[in-house]
Amino acid sequence: LVGALEACLLAQRGFKVDLYDVREDIRQMEHVPGRSINLAMSIRALSALKMLHLDEHIKEEYGIPMYARMIHNKDGAKYAIPYGKENECIYSVGRRYINEILLDKGETYDNITYHFNHKLVKVDLDKPELTFTRTEPTADDEKVVVNPDLVIGCDGAYSAVRKEMMRKPRFDYSQEYIPHAYMELNIPPSATGDFAMEKNYLHIWPRGQFMMIGLPNQDRSFTLTLFMPTETFNSITDEASLIDFFIDNYRDSIPLIGRDNLVRDFFRNKALPLVSIKCKPYNIGATSVIMGDAAHAMVPFYGQGMNCGMEDCIVLNDCLDSEKSLSGALDKYTHHRNPDAEAMCDLAMYNYIEMRDLVNKKSFLLRKKLDNLLHWMFPQWWVPLYTSVTFTRMRYHECIKNRLWQDQALTYISSAGGVVSLLGVYLIARHKATNQYIMDGTSLLLHYISKYVK
């Protein structure tokens, strides 16, 4: 995703770009191996695609808008938690489709050349020099050696380019595998060919130490992703234990998935690990730079992996605009982007706790209502954390600072004097409110205010 996007942006600037991919052309493949977790696209990725005039296509013609989380309780009850203001949404998109439209866009530039079936086997960042092995069945492991002016590593969480950077002095690197793994399942369209659940929602089954989410697909199916500790996956060894587990935790999903489909897919698929990676610097002088997951792989619970990676391309583009030399631009890119990328890695970890557990707590719902109320009243002054991350391009580390300031303010508001202040806020909101959503929020706020923020 990031590599194809960056290739187009560099081609716009007049650079000659050669893009190498270990896979064959995915546009010609019946099935694309590797990760297929659905992607939730928001303003950061859309802003990057706007530079290629692809954003409106995603919003108007392809992406499925999701306006809220739909929470599924154990007893089968459901309720929605809106993401933001009315009409604010994120878009469910397919990883393969986004890759394909970016590759198609790249073919419109004469200065981009694609090299598929090339596996990177050796990296020398001092020259720089890259050695590839051609992987077509007829290539007989033919070696290809290239000497580019600049190496841009967009080669994922297990980046070969980053591995070579780690040999350099003063390169910091850390990784963390969380105890949880993920597995994808599927809800097919209904018997009438329609969506089997409400279409315009990100569905969540929060269950404390584990959870399941569902995103709508363009073929009217839903892709489900089951997240839980590896030991829980390992404890499910046969059909009986699987069905018992789903009856206990996800009873309402069984008829939607189909019992036979559930058994087949669970034991055919493999639970895959989740890793968070931080490193710096992102560049070695003017010869190399890493972007996307190669620079900052994150767990998928904030839906920002693709958004953050595509925003990398905007930041690098801005640095190339503002700096006279390539080395100066790449140094600035590292200095500017690293604190934001590391902040987003931390936020992604936090959001897993929120999604699997906190969404069921009254204190979380109250905070959500309170944030929405204050944002409605003071849209420039009070921007909730999720709103700042998902619906603005506020720098990620500033989003965290903003949230810390809000937490401190609400701690003060929770005092006796603060309650009086909130009562005043309620009366103003009651006077000015023009829709039931605001009134519901303020009513719930007063109902729980005596219990909030300890």
Structural overview:
The protein contains 17 helices and 18 strands. The strands form 5 sheets. Strands 5-4-13-14-15-12-16 form a 7-stranded mixed β-sheet. It has a 3-stranded antiparallel β-sheet with strand order 2-6-3. It is an alpha+beta fold and 454 residues long. Helix 11 packs antiparallel against helix 12. Strand 14 and strand 15 form a beta hairpin. The C terminus is likely disordered.
Count every beta strand, where a strand is a DSSP E run of 2 or more residues: 18
Give the radius of gyration. Answer: 24 Å
| Uncertain spans | 428-439, 444-454
What separation lies between the terminal Cα atoms? 44 Å
Average pLDDT number = 87
User: How much strand content do the residues show?
Assistant: 15-25%
| Major β-sheet strand ordering | 5-4-13-14-15-12-16
The assigned structural class equals alpha+beta
Helix content: 40-55%
What is the 3D form? globular
Number of helices: 17
Most strands sheet: 7 strands, mixed
Q: What descriptors fit this protein?
A:
single chain; 454 residues; alpha+beta; 3-stranded antiparallel beta sheet; 17 helices; 44% helix; 22% strand
Concise overview:
This protein has 454 residues and is of the alpha+beta class. The chain has 17 helices and 18 strands.
Topology overview:
Elements: H1 2-12, E1 17-20, E2 39-41, H2 43-50, H3 55-62, E3 64-66, E4 68-72, E5 78-82, E6 90-93, H4 95-106, E7 112-115, E8 118-124, E9 129-134, E10 143-146, E11 151-153, H5 160-165, E12 172-187, E13 201-206, E14 211-216, E15 222-229, H6 230-235, H7 239-249, H8 254-257, H9 259-268, E16 272-280, E17 283-284, E18 288-290, H10 293-296, H11 305-322, H12 326-356, H13 362-377, H14 385-390, H15 396-413, H16 416-432, H17 436-448
Parallel strand pairs: 1-7, 4-13, 11-18
Antiparallel strand pairs: 2-6, 3-6, 4-5, 8-9, 9-10, 12-15, 12-16, 13-14, 14-15, 17-18
